[in-house]
Design brief:
heterodimer, A: alpha+beta, 4-stranded mixed beta sheet, 28% helix, B: mainly alpha, MetI-like fold, globular
Chain lengths: 513, 317
């Protein structure tokens, strides 16, 4: 009964909002191409189908990407990212870095409040970052924060962070949530300063967030009233629910799903800063020979994989870097190994395998996309005499055997994007724990180390580009594509944007009808 | 008395055996729960912290002994994935599965019994052949397909029922009834088919027995013979099947729960295995074993009620 009363309340407020919206709210629309029927209306509920369960509502205990994307609407960080992957002010109005690159001074915005009404001050930032860095007792929560030496709060709106050493990757970590000082009930009732407030959560079923009227960034106060994340493990069910009008958004829909819903939906599609690669274990025979790895690169037709497996919705890669991070990406690498089976055969002969060899390809069976890719690759490699033996394993086993212990010959996996190139390229540093490709190149290690302590932005970009080139030249692996993420939205719902990380910008969503 | 003592000790012994087997099988599975929870992008620091928090640095045998000692004190331990007491996690899920099970069993019995008897009575006639064909379909078509078809017809086209999710009974009784109807029906369809076929076969078998001929000679009507004598005997094998089906649905229906996005036990079991959530897996297996044993025991009791001869045989044991 209580719930019905609540529904009625929402319904009434919705109607009243709709009425006011008609009078004067139409100018708010930022979309330049807005037509008459494209006008943003305030109010409404958006129901989003999520395929995975929430692991923990506490932002410092959660690790699942989906959970973080949902809760990102409840919590804000000092900085945030825009669509191009650049850092933009959020809770912090501005920041300065000292000449030696070790001291960061953040000026906070005035009048930022948490959802419980309390003011967000430098004390809360200090509390949050000390927790993340493990400075307030206990272990560090994130290794990105371990490099913090001390945090000071000279005034209510000023935070000074001193690092143990220069680290150009630190700034990207400041998108992590700021939480109210000395509040530790986030797992039950999360309190942040984001555009949406936590309303309630039914385990395994639904997470409800409501609009935060007092959001500090008045431009970005949400237009919709409420968001409901529905946990739906089966995508087919989510599609049927969308058909019957019980779901409004499916973030990450398959191309078959798109066809099924066809005229009911509008889609937003873009590369997601992911690197799908066929990882080659550089330490096992015969893959330890660069010529063999180059031959494999020459034998694989990435365009064909994109055409068949991703139905054209993917960007070809040449290194472990997606062009969606345009600023840092070395262009042109994707054409280094133009498909050429003849040349591949020659290289194999040079390496001492004129008749090819048998290659084991271990693929996590949980990801149909990678399994499909494996099948196309097996076919392509068979044309140069390499017999591919596809072995399907469960993802949990993959994590242990392949990712942690590197007990494999080759595998197919996708790395989700990070905001800082350091995090992306660190994977190939020879002493990095999860360098499961077992790539080893002193020059590369040196470059990555150098990038971290460099302060000149142009130089940093230059170094990361060199590092990407090295990965390609050494044929460290086969870097296939950055597959698009396709978000399906019911007709009349607009405003979804794509970022280089999986971010749901729910505050920008609005209904036009 | 000795009979019940024997039953109880067997009961506990079976549970311990089941749990031991699961423990050993589980040790063979590769996979680190902390890494699985945190995923591909977790940094080392996070994994180490979580391992410590979850107590994973202790040897598996030690953790198992701790867990089983706790069970004897009524404590099922703490789930690794949810970081909540297992009993709490289960308490959230059991009502959903329980409702599905009760609802679908009601449907199975209310539809299956009358139809089974009808087919047996009309054996050889058109209606019986027709229904037999349908039951054959019911058995061979997988339940997830029924699930999708039901959603398509009743939710998408007719919009009579919601596509997914549920409402707790306490909140809205009729809402809950509506939400559970389709998934229960999807589970029940193949069960109904099984019950119909079983009932038909056993009734037809019984009809060939000598006592039926005797009764007919005595001048009893066919109807009276069926309801007074045949059914009583025919129920015994059907009861076994009903017991098996009940235990099965109480354990949770993995596929139907996923199709209808219901947070039940089947769904949870799969997740607990993929996340190597040892205490949760152990507790769920224990729950399922208890269900199976209790239902078998109840079936035993019912046997005796229906057929007193069985009781005598049991006592002699």
């Amino acid at each position: 009964m209580k719930k019905n009363g609540f529904k009625l309340l929402i319904f009434l407020s919705l109607i009243s909002l709709l009425l006011t919206a008609c009078s004067n709210d139409s100018k708010k629309n930022e979309d330049k191409s807005a037509k008459a029927n494209d006008e943003a209306k305030s109010g409404g509920i958006v129901r989003i189908a999520m395929s995975t369960e929430i692991d923990n509502l506490d932002p410092y205990q959660s690790a699942a990407t989906d959970t973080m994307s949902m809760m990102d609407n409840v919590y804000d960080g000092l900085l945030d990212t825009n669509e191009a992957g650049e850092l933009v002010p959020a809770i912090a109005a501005s920041y300065e870095v000292s000449d030696d690159g070790q001291v960061y001074t953040f000026k906070l915005k005035k009048d930022v409040t948490f959802h419980d009404g309390s003011k967000l001050t430098s004390k809360d930032v200090k509390y949050s970052y000390e927790k993340l860095a493990g400075l307030s007792g206990g272990e560090a929560i994130s290794s990105q924060f371990e490099i913090i030496k001390k945090i000071e709060a000279p005034s209510d709106l000023e935070v000074v962070i001193t690092l143990k050493e220069k680290n150009s990757a630190f700034l990207a970590a400041t998108i992590r949530p700021i939480v109210p000082a000395d509040y530790n009930k986030h797992s039950e009732k999360p309190i942040g300063a984001g555009p949406f407030k936590f309303e309630d959560y039914k385990v395994g079923q639904e997470l409800r967030l409501v609009k935060n009227e007092n959001y500090y960034d008045q431009e970005k106060v949400p237009k919709i009233d409420e968001v409901q994340f529905k946990i739906m493990p089966d995508q087919e069910s989510a599609i049927l629910a969308m058909k019957s009008g019980e779901i409004d958004v499916i973030p990450g829909i398959s191309s078959q799903g798109k066809q099924q819903l066809d005229d009911l939906i509008e889609t937003v599609s873009a590369p997601q800063n992911m690197v799908q690669l066929m990882a080659l274990n550089n330490k096992v025979k015969p893959l330890d020979d660069p010529n063999v790895r180059k031959a494999i690169n020459l034998a694989i037709d990435k365009d064909m994989i994109i055409e068949t497996v991703a139905e054209g919705e993917g960007v070809k890669l040449g290194s472990n870097f997606s062009p969606s991070m345009e600023f840092y990406c070395q262009e042109g690498l994707e054409d280094t190994y133009k498909t050429n089976p003849e040349e591949a055969k020659k290289l194999l002969e040079k390496a001492g395998y004129p008749d090819g060899f048998t290659l084991e390809l271990t693929v996590p069976s949980d990801y149909q996309f990678h399994v499909d890719t494996a099948q196309v690759i097996a076919d392509q490699l068979s044309q140069v005499g390499i017999k591919v033996d596809i072995k399907l394993i469960e993802f949990s086993t993959w994590l242990e055997k392949v990712y942690n212990e590197a007990q494999y010959e080759s595998t197919i996996i996708g790395f989700t994007g990070k905001l800082d190139p350091y995090e992306i390229l660190l994977r190939y540093v020879s002493d990095y724990k999860n360098n499961f490709v077992k790539y080893e190149n002193k020059e590369y290690d040196q470059l990555i180390r150098q990038a971290l302590v460099e302060t000149d932005v142009e130089e940093i970009v230059n170094i990361y580009k060199q590092a990407q080139t090295l990965l390609t030249e050494d044929a460290a692996s086969v870097f296939i594509m950055d597959p698009y993420r396709t978000v399906a939205m019911k007709k009349g719902l607009k405003g979804w944007k794509m970022y280089p990380i999986q971010k749901f910008n729910l505050e920008d969503l609005y209904y036009t009808e | 008395m000795r009979y019940y003592l024997y039953k109880t000790s067997m009961f506990i012994l079976t549970l311990v055996m089941v749990s031991l087997i699961i423990f050993f099988v589980f040790q063979l599975l590769p996979g680190n729960p902390a890494q699985i929870i945190l995923g591909l992008d977790a940094d080392e620091q996070q994994i180490r912290n979580l391992e410590q928090e979850l107590g994973l640095e202790r040897p598996a045998t030690e953790r198992y002994i701790d867990w089983i000692a706790g069970v004897f004190q009524g404590n099922l331990g703490e789930s690794l994935r949810y970081q909540l007491p297992v009993s709490e996690v289960l308490a959230d899920r059991i009502p959903v599965t329980m409702s599905l099970a009760v609802f679908s069993m009601l449907l199975t019995i209310l539809v299956g019994f009358p139809l089974g008897i009808l087919i047996a009575r009309t054996d050889g006639k058109f209606i019986s052949v027709f229904l037999s064909m349908i039951t054959q379909l019911g058995i061979s078509i997988p339940s997830f397909w029924f699930g999708f078809m039901l959603i398509l017809l009743f939710s998408v086209i007719l919009k009579w029922f919601p596509t997914f999710g549920y409402v707790p009974w306490s909140e809205d009784f009729f809402g809950a009834l509506r939400a559970y109807f389709l998934p229960s029906l999807a589970i029940a369809i193949s069960n109904i088919a099984v019950v119909i076929r079983y009932l038909r076969n056993t009734i037809l078998d019984q009809k060939k027995m000598d006592y039926v001929r005797t009764a007919t000679c005595k001048g009893l009507s066919e109807r009276a013979i069926l309801y007074r004598h045949v059914l009583r005997n025919a129920f015994i094998p059907v009861l076994t099947i009903i017991g098996l089906i009940t235990a099965d649905t109480l354990g949770g229906s993995i596929i139907i729960e996923n199709v209808f996005a219901l947070p039940g036990l089947g769904n949870l079991l799969i997740q607990s295995i993929t996340s190597r959530d040892f205490p949760l897996v152990q507790s769920m297996v224990l729950y399922i074993a208890v269900i199976v044993l209790v239902i078998n025991f109840m079936v035993d009791l019912l046997y005796k009620l229906i057929d007193p001869r069985i009781s005598k045989r049991g006592e002699q044991l």
